[in-house]
Amino acid sequence: MDFKEQVAVITGAASGIGLAVAKQLLESGARLVLLDINDTSLQKEFGNRPQQVLLFPIDITNQSEVDKAINTAATHWGRIHILVNCAGITGVTNIKSHEVNTEDLQRVFNINFMASFYTAHAVLPYMIKQAYGRILHVASIAGKEGNAGMLAYSASKAAVIGMTKVQGKEYAEMGITVNALAPAVIRTPLVDAMPAEQVKYMTNKIPMKRCGTLEEAVHLILYIVSPANTFTTGFTFICPVEGLRISYSMQPKSFVPSHLCSCASSQIWTKDIEQEQKEML
Asked: Which residues belong to any copy of the Ketoreductase domain (predicted)?
Protein backbone atom coordinates (compact mmCIF):
# COMPACT_ATOMS: atom_id res chain seq x y z
CA MET A 1 0.00 0.00 0.00
CA ASP A 2 1.15 3.53 -0.74
CA PHE A 3 1.29 5.95 2.19
CA LYS A 4 3.48 8.53 0.48
CA GLU A 5 3.28 12.00 2.08
CA GLN A 6 0.97 10.76 4.84
CA VAL A 7 1.87 11.51 8.46
CA ALA A 8 1.33 8.71 10.97
CA VAL A 9 1.47 8.92 14.77
CA ILE A 10 2.30 5.61 16.45
CA THR A 11 2.47 4.90 20.17
CA GLY A 12 4.44 2.00 21.55
CA ALA A 13 6.71 2.31 18.53
CA ALA A 14 9.85 1.00 20.21
CA SER A 15 8.81 -2.66 20.20
CA GLY A 16 6.18 -5.22 19.27
CA ILE A 17 3.28 -4.33 17.02
CA GLY A 18 4.08 -0.61 17.16
CA LEU A 19 7.61 -1.15 15.90
CA ALA A 20 6.46 -3.47 13.12
CA VAL A 21 3.77 -1.02 11.99
CA ALA A 22 6.22 1.88 12.05
CA LYS A 23 8.75 0.04 9.90
CA GLN A 24 6.15 -0.98 7.34
CA LEU A 25 4.62 2.49 7.09
CA LEU A 26 8.09 3.97 6.69
CA GLU A 27 8.83 1.58 3.83
CA SER A 28 5.50 2.58 2.29
CA GLY A 29 6.45 6.25 2.17
CA ALA A 30 4.86 7.64 5.33
CA ARG A 31 6.36 10.24 7.62
CA LEU A 32 6.34 9.10 11.21
CA VAL A 33 5.70 10.58 14.63
CA LEU A 34 6.78 7.96 17.15
CA LEU A 35 5.86 8.05 20.83
CA ASP A 36 7.43 5.67 23.34
CA ILE A 37 9.06 6.07 26.72
CA ASN A 38 11.96 3.85 25.60
CA ASP A 39 14.27 6.43 24.04
CA THR A 40 17.14 3.96 23.59
CA SER A 41 15.10 1.64 21.39
CA LEU A 42 13.58 4.51 19.42
CA GLN A 43 17.02 5.89 18.64
CA LYS A 44 18.36 2.46 17.74
CA GLU A 45 15.55 1.73 15.29
CA PHE A 46 14.88 5.17 13.81
CA GLY A 47 17.55 7.61 14.93
CA ASN A 48 19.18 7.61 11.49
CA ARG A 49 15.99 8.74 9.67
CA PRO A 50 15.51 12.39 10.76
CA GLN A 51 14.14 13.37 7.37
CA GLN A 52 11.18 11.01 7.77
CA VAL A 53 10.81 10.39 11.49
CA LEU A 54 10.16 12.53 14.56
CA LEU A 55 10.92 10.81 17.87
CA PHE A 56 9.20 11.69 21.15
CA PRO A 57 10.45 9.62 24.12
CA ILE A 58 7.62 10.69 26.42
CA ASP A 59 5.29 9.31 29.05
CA ILE A 60 2.04 8.98 27.11
CA THR A 61 0.02 8.86 30.33
CA ASN A 62 0.88 12.56 30.74
CA GLN A 63 -1.66 14.47 28.67
CA SER A 64 0.34 17.69 28.52
CA GLU A 65 3.36 15.80 27.11
CA VAL A 66 1.15 14.12 24.52
CA ASP A 67 -0.44 17.43 23.49
CA LYS A 68 2.97 19.08 23.15
CA ALA A 69 4.33 16.22 21.00
CA ILE A 70 1.32 16.16 18.69
CA ASN A 71 1.25 19.94 18.27
CA THR A 72 5.00 19.97 17.55
CA ALA A 73 4.59 17.20 14.97
CA ALA A 74 1.60 18.88 13.31
CA THR A 75 3.53 22.14 13.04
CA HIS A 76 6.54 20.34 11.59
CA TRP A 77 4.74 18.15 9.03
CA GLY A 78 1.71 20.34 8.43
CA ARG A 79 -0.82 17.55 8.83
CA ILE A 80 -1.62 14.35 10.69
CA HIS A 81 -3.40 11.60 8.75
CA ILE A 82 -3.04 8.47 10.87
CA LEU A 83 -2.98 7.48 14.53
CA VAL A 84 -2.18 3.95 15.62
CA ASN A 85 -2.30 3.34 19.37
CA CYS A 86 -0.15 0.29 20.07
CA ALA A 87 1.24 1.07 23.53
CA GLY A 88 -0.01 -1.28 26.19
CA ILE A 89 0.84 -3.39 29.23
CA THR A 90 -0.79 -6.42 30.81
CA GLY A 91 -0.07 -5.61 34.43
CA VAL A 92 0.10 -8.50 36.86
CA THR A 93 -1.57 -11.57 35.36
CA ASN A 94 -2.49 -15.13 36.31
CA ILE A 95 -4.29 -13.91 39.42
CA LYS A 96 -7.96 -13.82 40.42
CA SER A 97 -9.93 -10.59 40.78
CA HIS A 98 -9.77 -10.49 44.58
CA GLU A 99 -5.97 -10.57 44.32
CA VAL A 100 -5.73 -7.56 41.96
CA ASN A 101 -3.82 -4.61 43.33
CA THR A 102 -5.64 -1.30 42.83
CA GLU A 103 -2.43 0.53 41.97
CA ASP A 104 -1.60 -2.00 39.25
CA LEU A 105 -5.15 -1.78 37.90
CA GLN A 106 -4.90 2.01 37.64
CA ARG A 107 -1.50 1.82 35.94
CA VAL A 108 -2.84 -0.57 33.30
CA PHE A 109 -5.84 1.67 32.63
CA ASN A 110 -3.64 4.75 32.39
CA ILE A 111 -1.46 3.21 29.68
CA ASN A 112 -4.00 1.09 27.80
CA PHE A 113 -7.02 3.39 27.88
CA MET A 114 -6.19 6.93 29.03
CA ALA A 115 -3.13 7.24 26.78
CA SER A 116 -5.23 6.18 23.78
CA PHE A 117 -7.80 8.80 24.71
CA TYR A 118 -5.09 11.48 25.08
CA THR A 119 -3.58 10.83 21.65
CA ALA A 120 -6.96 10.68 19.91
CA HIS A 121 -8.02 13.84 21.72
CA ALA A 122 -4.88 15.57 20.44
CA VAL A 123 -4.99 14.48 16.79
CA LEU A 124 -8.73 14.74 16.12
CA PRO A 125 -8.82 18.56 15.75
CA TYR A 126 -6.22 18.33 12.97
CA MET A 127 -8.12 15.51 11.25
CA ILE A 128 -11.39 17.42 11.49
CA LYS A 129 -9.78 20.47 9.92
CA GLN A 130 -8.53 18.50 6.92
CA ALA A 131 -11.70 16.33 6.73
CA TYR A 132 -9.62 13.16 6.73
CA GLY A 133 -8.19 10.80 9.29
CA ARG A 134 -7.62 7.16 10.18
CA ILE A 135 -7.45 6.11 13.84
CA LEU A 136 -6.77 2.59 15.03
CA HIS A 137 -6.82 1.61 18.70
CA VAL A 138 -5.13 -1.73 19.30
CA ALA A 139 -7.34 -3.52 21.79
CA SER A 140 -7.42 -7.27 22.43
CA ILE A 141 -9.70 -10.27 22.21
CA ALA A 142 -9.48 -10.13 26.01
CA GLY A 143 -11.46 -6.90 25.79
CA LYS A 144 -14.25 -8.73 23.96
CA GLU A 145 -14.32 -11.99 25.88
CA GLY A 146 -12.47 -11.37 29.16
CA ASN A 147 -9.49 -13.55 30.01
CA ALA A 148 -9.51 -15.20 33.40
CA GLY A 149 -6.51 -14.06 35.42
CA MET A 150 -6.30 -10.77 33.50
CA LEU A 151 -8.88 -8.44 35.02
CA ALA A 152 -6.93 -5.19 34.58
CA TYR A 153 -5.91 -5.93 31.01
CA SER A 154 -9.29 -7.28 29.90
CA ALA A 155 -11.23 -4.39 31.43
CA SER A 156 -8.90 -1.73 30.02
CA LYS A 157 -9.13 -3.18 26.52
CA ALA A 158 -12.92 -3.40 26.83
CA ALA A 159 -12.85 0.34 27.55
CA VAL A 160 -10.78 0.89 24.41
CA ILE A 161 -13.38 -1.00 22.35
CA GLY A 162 -16.16 1.09 23.89
CA MET A 163 -14.32 4.30 23.04
CA THR A 164 -13.84 3.08 19.46
CA LYS A 165 -17.59 2.57 19.01
CA VAL A 166 -18.34 6.06 20.30
CA GLN A 167 -15.67 7.82 18.25
CA GLY A 168 -16.58 5.86 15.13
CA LYS A 169 -20.11 7.24 15.34
CA GLU A 170 -19.08 10.77 16.27
CA TYR A 171 -16.71 11.39 13.34
CA ALA A 172 -18.19 9.16 10.62
CA GLU A 173 -19.44 12.12 8.56
CA MET A 174 -16.17 14.02 8.77
CA GLY A 175 -13.99 11.78 6.64
CA ILE A 176 -12.51 10.14 9.74
CA THR A 177 -12.67 6.44 10.52
CA VAL A 178 -12.00 5.10 14.01
CA ASN A 179 -11.58 1.37 14.44
CA ALA A 180 -10.09 -1.11 16.86
CA LEU A 181 -8.09 -4.27 16.39
CA ALA A 182 -8.62 -7.15 18.80
CA PRO A 183 -5.74 -9.55 18.18
CA ALA A 184 -5.59 -12.95 19.78
CA VAL A 185 -2.10 -13.65 21.10
CA ILE A 186 0.53 -11.97 18.93
CA ARG A 187 4.13 -12.94 19.62
CA THR A 188 5.57 -9.72 21.06
CA PRO A 189 7.81 -8.81 24.03
CA LEU A 190 4.61 -8.14 26.00
CA VAL A 191 3.49 -11.75 25.52
CA ASP A 192 6.99 -13.08 26.12
CA ALA A 193 6.96 -11.42 29.55
CA MET A 194 3.72 -13.13 30.61
CA PRO A 195 3.59 -16.30 32.73
CA ALA A 196 3.76 -19.41 30.57
CA GLU A 197 0.51 -20.70 32.08
CA GLN A 198 -1.33 -17.55 30.99
CA VAL A 199 -0.03 -17.78 27.42
CA LYS A 200 -0.95 -21.48 27.27
CA TYR A 201 -4.47 -20.69 28.51
CA MET A 202 -4.94 -18.24 25.63
CA THR A 203 -3.27 -20.16 22.81
CA ASN A 204 -5.17 -23.33 23.71
CA LYS A 205 -8.35 -21.48 22.73
CA ILE A 206 -7.02 -20.66 19.26
CA PRO A 207 -7.67 -23.35 16.63
CA MET A 208 -4.09 -23.08 15.30
CA LYS A 209 -2.78 -23.48 18.86
CA ARG A 210 -0.11 -20.83 18.32
CA CYS A 211 0.56 -17.14 18.67
CA GLY A 212 -0.10 -14.89 15.72
CA THR A 213 2.86 -13.22 14.05
CA LEU A 214 3.63 -9.53 13.78
CA GLU A 215 3.40 -9.79 10.01
CA GLU A 216 -0.14 -11.17 10.25
CA ALA A 217 -1.24 -8.30 12.48
CA VAL A 218 0.50 -5.57 10.46
CA HIS A 219 -1.08 -6.70 7.18
CA LEU A 220 -4.52 -6.06 8.63
CA ILE A 221 -3.54 -2.81 10.36
CA LEU A 222 -2.24 -1.27 7.15
CA TYR A 223 -5.57 -1.81 5.45
CA ILE A 224 -7.51 -0.33 8.36
CA VAL A 225 -5.50 2.92 8.31
CA SER A 226 -5.27 3.19 4.53
CA PRO A 227 -7.29 5.45 2.21
CA ALA A 228 -8.90 2.27 0.89
CA ASN A 229 -10.82 1.84 4.14
CA THR A 230 -13.55 4.37 3.45
CA PHE A 231 -16.66 2.67 4.83
CA THR A 232 -15.68 0.76 7.96
CA THR A 233 -15.73 2.70 11.22
CA GLY A 234 -16.59 2.05 14.85
CA PHE A 235 -15.73 -1.59 14.22
CA THR A 236 -13.52 -4.02 16.12
CA PHE A 237 -11.54 -6.19 13.74
CA ILE A 238 -10.63 -9.57 15.18
CA CYS A 239 -7.39 -11.21 14.08
CA PRO A 240 -7.45 -14.05 13.28
CA VAL A 241 -11.14 -14.10 12.40
CA GLU A 242 -12.03 -17.70 11.66
CA GLY A 243 -12.38 -19.83 14.75
CA LEU A 244 -11.08 -17.51 17.45
CA ARG A 245 -14.32 -16.18 18.83
CA ILE A 246 -15.94 -19.57 18.38
CA SER A 247 -13.41 -21.11 20.72
CA TYR A 248 -13.85 -18.37 23.31
CA SER A 249 -17.64 -18.27 23.41
CA MET A 250 -18.83 -21.34 21.52
CA GLN A 251 -20.64 -19.39 18.81
CA PRO A 252 -21.46 -20.83 15.35
CA LYS A 253 -18.61 -20.71 12.85
CA SER A 254 -20.63 -18.57 10.45
CA PHE A 255 -20.43 -15.69 12.92
CA VAL A 256 -17.96 -13.52 10.99
CA PRO A 257 -17.46 -13.68 7.21
CA SER A 258 -13.99 -14.76 6.16
CA HIS A 259 -13.54 -11.72 3.94
CA LEU A 260 -13.04 -9.58 7.03
CA CYS A 261 -9.69 -11.24 7.60
CA SER A 262 -8.24 -9.67 4.46
CA CYS A 263 -10.66 -6.74 4.63
CA ALA A 264 -10.70 -6.62 0.83
CA SER A 265 -14.39 -5.85 0.66
CA SER A 266 -15.64 -5.29 4.20
CA GLN A 267 -18.38 -2.73 4.40
CA ILE A 268 -19.55 -2.68 7.99
CA TRP A 269 -20.38 0.64 9.60
CA THR A 270 -20.51 1.10 13.38
CA LYS A 271 -22.24 -2.21 13.99
CA ASP A 272 -21.86 -3.92 17.31
CA ILE A 273 -20.40 -7.40 16.87
CA GLU A 274 -23.30 -9.02 18.74
CA GLN A 275 -25.81 -7.35 16.38
CA GLU A 276 -23.69 -8.45 13.43
CA GLN A 277 -23.98 -12.03 14.63
CA LYS A 278 -27.78 -11.86 14.86
CA GLU A 279 -28.06 -10.55 11.31
CA MET A 280 -25.87 -13.28 9.84
CA LEU A 281 -27.35 -16.34 11.55
From this structure: 6-184
